[in-house]
Amino acid sequence: MVIRKTASDRSLIPIAALILAIMLLTASNFTATSVNRVFAGSNIGLNSTSPEKTQVLPRTVILDPSTLLNLKQDFNEGNNTMSGLGLHALVLQASSLLNKKATSVVNKSELPPSGDIHDFLSLAPYRWPDPTKKDGLPYIGRDGKTNPEIYSIPDKRNMDDMIHSVTVLAAAYYLTGNSQYASKAEELLRYWFLNNSTKMNPNLTYAETVRGKSKIYSAGIMAGRNLTDVVDAIGLIQRSSAWSNEDQVGIVSWFSQYLDWLLKSNSGKEEALKINNHGTYYYVQVSAIALFLNKTNITRNIIKASIEPPSSSTFVAPEKSIAAKILPNGLQPFELQRTRSLDYSMFNLLGLFKLANIGQNAGIDIWNYKTDRVPLLQKALDFLLPYIIKKHSWPYSQVTQINRYLATDLLCQAIIHYPNRTGPYLDAYKIVSRNSTFLNIDNLSPTCHNS
Fold it and tell me: What is the dihedral of CA 64, 255, 170, 17, to 10 degrees?
């Protein structure tokens, strides 16, 4: 996985944080009833409507539906708090996207090895020409150093940009009911996923390829980790007039094929065995997409396995248990070999937080899974906390400044889910986000801003 902060990333990472932060705006207690209200009687091939006249919950799989409904009501009542103003900023950003040109995988000039321009193609970001070879081939690894050649193939950047735009537009539609936002989101989604002339084939076989090697690398599946934002965005516009039955049937077909590829391809099978952040985000994708497709047995099996005692495990092992990824003291040992191991520890933990959100919407509690007195996810954050706020020096490799977007995402979620530690997490949040208005807009939790 790559955590990088290019000019493009600075616009993309924060908006993912913004949408994730929506679920934090109003702390709501999860009950099985909320899941039943979202999924009971739903048909994923149809634009379903709720029998409730005033309590229509969005069909989201990571964001909490009840919290989103409360947020919408709060927004429409003219909330002028910091969080309310941040939501108005989101709507303004959505308005700026209404004239955006759609992009797709067919915009590249270099064909993937298959010869099919509809196949996604990207280069492994940490691979560079071998200076000992005349032609530089095959490329060699330089961990943590991004080769700018990756930007010569636009598929990854275009997909991230599409997800960014669709997520903003969908959130703005849900808040305002303005069909312009839903229509634009539908246009961008149709161009990327559905139109015969422009659609992406539902696989990531040629993501993160290496110049000079014909091998297919399973690590490319990480390029699709933000596709889970797309399924939540669809849940936000699904009841709009802009999103047709044809759209829904088409997108369900695309994600069904993609899920099948994740589960059955050699790349998917290999990625599923990894116990580091690659395995974490593989299971985030599989469980979220399966829940979107009403294949709840797949989702629940993954979530249940994550809170079972671990078997003996190695770096590559059929191991889903959180207790295998986090030591009793909170250390995440499988993230320490990287040159930016603090960033990777936060990134992996954020993936586990996402898995906990999916579990919450599937009726299984990961947030409070314990191996002793303290929930394991909380223990992992508490281990990182003194290093995030620079109270202590990180004893492992971290060759750059920490990724503050990861830190603020983790802290805002922890404030909601672990109220017994609200004070330290809020103090840490203020330290990490200090002198950064942009970050303050993106992380909209009133607990973070209004106390």
Answer: 60
Give the helix/strand (H/E) hosting 325. helix 322-325
pTM score of the predicted model = 0.88
Give 171's pLDDT tier (boundaries 50, 70, 90).
very high
The H or E element that residue 128 is part of is: strand 127-128
CB atoms within 10 A of CB 396: 16
Average pLDDT over residues 2-8: 40
What domains does the chain contain, in order, with CATH numbers?
97-270 (1.50.10.100), 273-380 (no CATH)
Tokens 């940490």 — which residue?
126
pLDDT in tens, 205-243: 999 999 999 999 999 999 999 999 999 999 999 999 999
Count the helix, strand and coil residues of the chain and give each as a percent rounded to the nearest 5: 55, 5, 40
Alpha-helical (H) ranges within 238-295 are 245-264, 266-272, 277-292
Give me 60's structure tokens: 């989201």
CA–CA distance, 99 with 183 (Å, rounded to integer): 11
Tokens 């830190």 -> residue:
407
**Within a 10 A sphere around the Cβ of 55, how many other Cβ atoms?**
11
Reference 26, options 64, 80, 78; nearest CA is: 64
What would the pLDDT profile of 243-256 be if each residue is shown by its tens digit? Answer: 999 999 999 999 99
Mean pLDDT of 271-289: 96
Q: Which residues face 127 on adjacent strands?
A: 141
C-alpha span between 441 and 72 (Å, rounded): 17
Asked if 17 and 213 count as a contact pair (C-beta separation under 8 A), the reply is no
